[in-house]
Amino acid sequence: MTQNTELKYSYIKVADLLADQSLRIPEYQRPYKWTTRNVSQLLGDVDAFNKKASYRLGSLVFHLEDGHKNIVDGQQRTLTLFLILRAIADKRVEQLERLELKNQIRQIRAAMIDPSFSSDESHANIYTNWLEILRAVQRPEFTEQHIDFLLNKCEFVVFCLTNISEAFQFFDSQNARGKDLSPHDLLKAYHLREFLPEEDTAKGRVVNVWENSDPAKLVELFARYLFRIRNWTKGMSARFFGKEDIPVFKGVNLSTIAKYPYVEQLRIAHHFIDAYQQSYERQIDCHHLAFPFQLDQIIINGRRFFELVTHYYNLVKHLKPKDESISTIFGISLNDRAKNILQTLSQYEGRRRTGDGYVRSMFDCLLLYYWDKFAGEELSMAIERIFIWAYSLRLSMENVQLASMDNHVLGNNLFMHLKNAVHPSDFFHGDLPVVQTIKSTKTAQIEAVFRGMNYLA
């Protein structure tokens, strides 16, 4: 697509989208991958924003061909909306009071296309989501107002292109400005909307910090550290961080959420720290009290989210000291064995291979999570334990893949073990793997450390 191409867009309500008989799911589309989590997020947005005059659900990209609109981007959301409308038509329409809404639903249901799928994955996800949607639309909390809001006030931005190559080129680089929206870009936009009106000054400050951060390092922070740690502590897979995973970093807005007991500790910490910083005593002693962020905490939307990102953006810089003689990490002095481990990881021959990068990611994530919970207490012993746990995978496999890393974590999940630890000593309980057969190459220095620690059979 040339830079001079004028991208025209329009808006379409959900009701009009679902009734459009020119829609087609082209054969080249990927399977339907949305899960019940995605469905719950969509319906949760409908519930959260149903008092608004309108709500944008995102964008759609169509390739116009022979009078049809081939869905290039937006298939997952569109198919989910088909399922929701069908469930409403089957299970709720007779209970509605407004005749015009009843008639509208019946007309849409009669007009909707009936796409077919050959993928077993699509069939499985459609069936599971259909059951979840049936449960959701029959709950009394899903009111007539919610249905009207979804159909008539929720809308998409629509891009229609006549050239298939342009449509695909536009696929991952689309919004009204033609700028690529990565997951962390979408999170930025979401949390900017969550600021309170009185926080305009703070908004400028935190956005400036975000904009002055290295974009590549922000991507790495979310994909390599924050996403993996948050998922692994829940016993969930964490291979790729994509747009469908951004709900992982959405939490509570303290100004609008009900006073649930679980929110009160966040509310107290949030307001106490603000009051502490703004007290006249701070003008005298110049003390600063940082918010006690935790990697596995419930996210506080808006300003605190940006502060959390800045906190961990700065913290991960400590994970790979650049000096040749590594004697400290996070500013904590280490014992000789922990120093040797960190030096070995920075020097061994195969460290730059892709698979070794996956193993180092496990090591770094668990070390960061340990520091986040216990700081420097028994840090050297933690490094020893994390090293054996992570690099036993490297020595035991000829080729380490992304799936190998993920399966290794979930098969012996020290993240969950650490999450449940009350004292550092709790983390050190339990056996570590003893490597029986070495299948790796270019890992002689790693092997030497294992041998010295008696973790080679």
Q: What can you tell me about this protein's structure?
A:
α14 (336-347) packs parallel to α16 (379-396). This protein is globular. It contains 20 helices and seven strands. β6 and β7 form a beta hairpin. Helices cover 53% and strands 8% of the residues.
Could you outline the blueprint of secondary structure elements for this entry?
Blueprint: E1 9-13, H1 14-18, E2 23-24, H2 36-48, E3 55-65, E4 68-73, H3 75-91, H4 99-111, H5 120-137, H6 144-152, E5 154-161, H7 164-171, H8 183-193, H9 200-211, H10 215-232, H11 261-278, H12 281-285, H13 303-315, E6 328-329, E7 332-333, H14 336-347, H15 354-374, H16 379-396, H17 402-411, H18 414-419, H19 424-427, H20 444-452
Parallel strand pairs: 2-4, 3-5
Antiparallel strand pairs: 1-5, 3-4, 6-7
Shape: globular
The major pleated sheet works out as:
5 strands, mixed
Structural class from helices and strands? alpha/beta
- Average pLDDT across residues? 89
Biggest sheet, strands in spatial order? 1-5-3-4-2
Helix content: 40-55%
Give the number of domains. 3
Rounded to the nearest angstrom, the radius of gyration is 26 Å
Helical element count?
Answer: 20
Task: Catalogue the unreliable spans.
Answer: 1-5, 172-180
- Pattern of helices and strands: EHEHEEHHHHEHHHHHHHEEHHHHHHH
Percentage of β-strand residues? 5-15%
State the assembly state of the protein chains.
single chain
